[in-house]
Structure formats: structure tokens, C-alpha cells
Design brief:
The chain has 264 residues and is an alpha/beta fold. The chain contains 9 helices and 12 strands. A hairpin with a 2-residue loop joins strand 4 and strand 5. Helix 4 crosses helix 5. The radius of gyration is 19 Å and the shape is globular. The structure holds adenosine-5'-diphosphate and magnesium ion. The site of adenosine-5'-diphosphate (ADP) has 11 residues, from strand 2 and helix 1. Adenosine-5'-diphosphate (ADP) binds next to strand 2 and helix 1.
């Protein structure tokens, strides 16, 4: 179980309101895709949810306010993968992924064999076993992104927060990473909230989309209802056509040459 109830959840930096009174219910096992132009508030939502940015309002996880949890308890339930993760160059892949186990390692003790097993398991799932002794500084951007995802999964969270998880990946690794999250989600009833900039991928993988603009929700629902050419023109100032696959309902957003729809 891992249902999230948002109640006027808000993020403000000084006078700048980055997320305005966000209220929503994300059901257990749901994948919510958060979309919106640069600066819309997607990262602020995820960081605040991870406890890394101050927020107001409330979020409850299965009824329990997240704000009342200790950092350790929260980390055992919610894992976060940053948009541009900063990693130490001189640490091995294995040791880095092992850091994901910190909520389970006793305060004075070292990690148990169960923790090392959990790390090995995740590395296998992400096909990273052969990388385990490599130093992070020697990896490509895409490999590093998979390692950061591995650390989040080693946390064995019930909620996974992903901030543009595939931005550094080529099309093949994008698909592999998103398929893996899908597989794990079905396997363990993981709830996923992912900010995604590729609207077509968002529509394929997410169960539901929330579109933010200047911190406010402008649309929420199934991809085919949220991703209309008119709304994309208004919010992203882009000229697109939107095709809906008659077979599986997948929504494909195709950029077109042309003048962006004027600001109204
Ligand atoms: N640490 C910060 N301090 C001040 N303003 C910030 C900070 N982080 C983000 N912002 C501002 O908050 C707004 C939302 O940013 P962000 O959540 O990063 O948007 P997105 O991830 O959708 O691009 C933007 O106007 C951005 O400039
Ligand atoms: Mg962002």
C-alpha cells in the first residue's frame, strides 16, 4: 500500500510561488506523470515530497503525514532520483548503490549481508553487475543515471520519485529504464511520480498526467484528454499535432514547423 493524499501542498522560494495549492490523490501503484514547461514547478513538487525543500500544506502516505516522519522512516518509504544527480567520482558503483540501504543499516552497525544481497539484486535487474567495481567518475552520463536509479531502488521504497529520469539516455536506454520501472511497479506495487519532458513517453508509461504551468495544475487525467494540440500550444507555446493510436490509444505528440500560438 502506498497511497498519497496531497492537501494544498505548496512550495514557495521567498516571494516566488513555485507550486500553488496542489491537491490530488495518487492511488497505490499508480504512475503519475508530471508535465509542464521549464519552471512550471515539477522539480519543486518532487523535491518537496522527498523532504529536500520546505513546503506547506500536507501530504499523507497511507494516512500518515510525511512531515511527521523521521528522515530514516521517510527514506525507507520514499526514494528520489534528482534531475541532475551529483555523484562522487571516486566511489565504486557497488558502494554508491549500497548507500541506498542507509534507512535499514543500524545507527552503529555496518551493513548486513541482507543489504549487500539487496544491492546485488538491484544491480542484476539493471544489468549493471559488470559495472559494480567501476568508479562513478568513469561512467557515461547514461550509465551514471542507471546507477542513481539503482541506488533509489536499493532503498526498497514504496514511492519512487523520478525527475526527468531519461533525459541523459539514448532512446534504447530510455525505454529500458522506463520498462524496468514499469516491471518493478507491477512486482511490488510501487507508486511512481515522474516529471517527464518527453510528452509521448509520458503518455505511454504514465497512468495519468498532471500538467503544471506556473505552479498551478492546468489539466489532469488520461493522456488523450490532457495532451491536446490546443492546450500544448497555450502552455508550451509550441505548434504540434497530436495523434492517437487507434489500436492502443497511445498518444503521439509531433512537433510541426510553424508559429507558436500567440500568448493570450
Ligand atoms: N532553489 C530555488 N530558489 C528560488 N527559486 C527557485 C529555486 N528552485 C526553483 N526555483 C523557481 O521555481 C520555479 C519552479 O522551478 P522548478 O520546480 O525547478 O520547475 P521545473 O522543474 O518544472 O522546470 C521556477 O520559477 C524556478 O526559477
Ligand atoms: Mg525540473
Amino acid at each position: 500500500m502506498s497511497r498519497l493524499d496531497f492537501d494544498d501542498f505548496a512550495v514557495q522560494y521567498g516571494k516566488r510561488r513555485a507550486l500553488v495549492d496542489f491537491s490530488d490523490v495518487v492511488t497505490s501503484g499508480e504512475w503519475l506523470g508530471v508535465i509542464g514547461p521549464n519552471g512550471a514547478g515539477k522539480s519543486s513538487l518532487l523535491r518537496a515530497l522527498a523532504g529536500l525543500t520546505a513546503s506547506s500544506g500536507q501530504v499523507r502516505l497511507d494516512g500518515a503525514p510525511l512531515a511527521a516522519m523521521s528522515a530514516r522512516e521517510r527514506a525507507s518509504k520514499v526514494a528520489y532520483v534528482a534531475q541532475l544527480p551529483i555523484v562522487p567520482d571516486d566511489m565504486s558503483v557497488f558502494d554508491f548503490v549500497l548507500l541506498g540501504r542507509w534507512p535499514y543499516v543500524s545507527r552503529f552497525g555496518t551493513e548486513r549481508s541482507a543489504d549487500r544481497r539487496a544491492v546485488t539484486d538491484v544491480l542484476e535487474r539493471l544489468r549493471l553487475e559488470s559495472f559494480q567495481d567501476r568508479m562513478l567518475g568513469e561512467l557515461s552520463g547514461g550509465e551514471r543515471q542507471r546507477v542513481v536509479l539503482a541506488r533509489a531502488l536499493a532503498q526498497e521504497p514504496s514511492v519512487l520519485l523520478l525527475d526527468e529520469p531519461t533525459s541523459a539516455l539514448d532512446i534504447g536506454h530510455q525505454q529500458q529504464a522506463l520498462e524496468l520501472v514499469t516491471e518493478l511497479r507491477c512486482h511490488r506495487e510501487l507508486t511512481v511520480i515522474a516529471a517527464m519532458h518527453d510528452l509521448t513517453l509520458a503518455s505511454i508509461y504514465a497512468d495519468r498526467l498532471v500538467m503544471l504551468d506556473e505552479g498551478e495544475v492546468v489539466a489532469s487525467g488520461a493522456a488523450r484528454d490532457v495532451l491536446t494540440a490546443e492546450r500544448l500550444g497555450d502552455v508550451f507555446h509550441v505548434c504540434v499535432t497530436v495523434d492517437v493510436d487507434p489500436d492502443d490509444g497511445a498518444v503521439v505528440v509531433v512537433p510541426r514547423r510553424g508559429f507558436p500560438v500567440a500568448d493570450s
